[in-house]
Structure formats: structure tokens, C-alpha cells
């Protein structure tokens, strides 16, 4: 009886994989999930950035909505005619007899027309519907529902002290001191209630 020799050959073994690392390509479905997720995240991020950009605007100094600073001749003397600042949409008013300083929003509270200072009558008059206001912005007559609005203002006196408009928008008392610098914040409008 003949004996057959059997030789066995080792089958090719795959290269040893490192433990804990599995490399596999994502399936088509997983790839689409990743793409859709990234697209939605991108859209939500752009929307959030856009909302924040418009909800929290930043105004430059000297631009309506920002702060306007004036010194010297731009500040009216006590009792002098108000000074119009068209770029800021306000009037600088230094009331007579040291009654105070204030910044009036130069827009009528009726329908948004622009009242003008009439020196002959010593008051503001709206050219559209005839509302009239005192030098301090208080309503005199006409269809306007309330007095002129005011802006938050900071005044610096020649002795270095400062004063700021209160929450009600009352004039800043000057007490006979000379004003050397003012800062008007057009982003902080103070609405006046009624005709006072």
C-alpha cells in the first residue's frame, strides 16, 4: 500500500489589523446623513449670525443712532436760538435764564414731519399739520399727541464737572456754569408722555 504524502500549504493570511482601529468607508446612506447635517448646521449658523448682526447694530460716533460730541461754538448760549444738527436729527437747546440744557429729537410726534424753529414766534412749528412746541419742546397746540422727544445728553462744564439727562428727560441744570462740551446719544431717545 502506497502512502500518499499530504502537504498542506498555509493559506495566505490577511495582514494583522491594529487593535481598536477599524477602517471602513461610510455607506451611501451615512454619507448623505453627514451632508444633510452639515448643510442644516451651516444654514442655522448663517441665520443666527445674520440675526445677531441686525439685532445688535453698532453705530459709529457722529452717525444717527450713535453719539454726537460738540465743543465751543456749536453749543448755543443760554436763551439763544436752538442749533439744528441735521445729521443727528436733533436740536441743541440752552434754555433762557439758566433753566437748563437739552437735546430735542427733531421729529414731530404727530406724523413724523420736521418742525422748524421760528424765531419770530420763539417756538418750534410743524409745517405739515401745525403742531406748535415751546423752546423746551413742550406741546402748545395742534394735533400732536405729546411733547417733542428728547435724547440722553451728557454735559461737561468748564470746571470739569459733568451732568447727565435724567430718566424723565428733564433739562440739565446749568446753575450759571459755562458748558464746554456736550455728548448727545441719539440711540437713547426719551419719549415724553402727554403734553408735559
Give a structural overview.
With 196 residues, this protein is α+β, with helices and mostly antiparallel strands. It has a domain at 67-190: Rieske Iron-sulfur Protein. It is built from 1 helix and 11 strands. Strands 1-11-9-10 form a 4-stranded antiparallel sheet, with no helix packed on it. Strands 5-6-7-8 form a 4-stranded antiparallel sheet, with no helix packed on it. The model has no long low-confidence stretch (mean pLDDT 82).
Structural topology:
Elements: H1 28-55, E1 67-71, E2 83-85, E3 90-95, E4 100-105, E5 116-118, E6 123-125, E7 132-133, E8 139-141, E9 150-157, E10 162-164, E11 179-190
Antiparallel strand pairs: 1-11, 2-3, 3-4, 5-6, 6-7, 7-8, 9-10, 9-11
Main attributes?
alpha+beta, four-stranded antiparallel beta sheet, 196 residues, 1 helix, Rieske Iron-sulfur Protein
Amino acid at each position: 500500500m502506497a502512502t500518499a504524502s499530504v502537504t498542506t500549504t498555509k493559506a495566505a493570511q490577511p495582514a494583522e489589523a491594529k487593535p481598536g482601529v477599524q477602517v471602513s468607508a461610510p455607506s451611501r446612506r451615512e454619507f448623505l446623513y453627514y451632508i444633510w447635517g452639515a448643510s442644516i448646521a451651516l444654514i442655522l449658523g448663517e441665520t443666527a449670525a445674520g440675526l445677531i448682526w441686525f439685532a445688535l447694530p453698532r453705530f459709529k460716533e457722529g452717525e444717527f443712532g450713535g453719539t454726537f460730541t460738540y465743543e465751543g461754538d456749536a453749543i448755543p448760549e443760554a436763551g439763544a436760538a436752538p442749533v439744528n444738527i441735521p445729521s443727528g436729527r436733533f436740536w441743541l437747546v440752552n434754555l433762557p435764564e439758566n433753566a437748563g440744557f437739552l437735546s430735542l429729537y427733531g421729529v414731530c410726534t404727530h406724523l413724523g414731519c420736521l418742525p422748524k424753529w421760528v424765531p419770530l414766534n420763539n417756538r418750534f412749528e410743524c409745517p405739515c399739520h401745525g403742531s406748535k412746541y415751546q423752546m423746551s419742546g413742550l406741546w402748545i397746540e395742534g394735533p400732536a399727541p405729546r411733547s417733542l422727544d428728547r435724547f440722553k445728553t451728557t454735559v461737561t462744564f468748564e470746571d470739569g464737572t459733568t451732568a447727565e439727562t435724567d430718566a424723565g428727560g428733564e433739562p440739565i441744570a446749568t446753575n450759571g456754569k459755562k458748558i464746554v462740551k456736550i455728548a448727545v446719544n441719539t440711540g437713547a431717545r426719551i419719549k415724553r408722555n402727554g403734553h408735559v
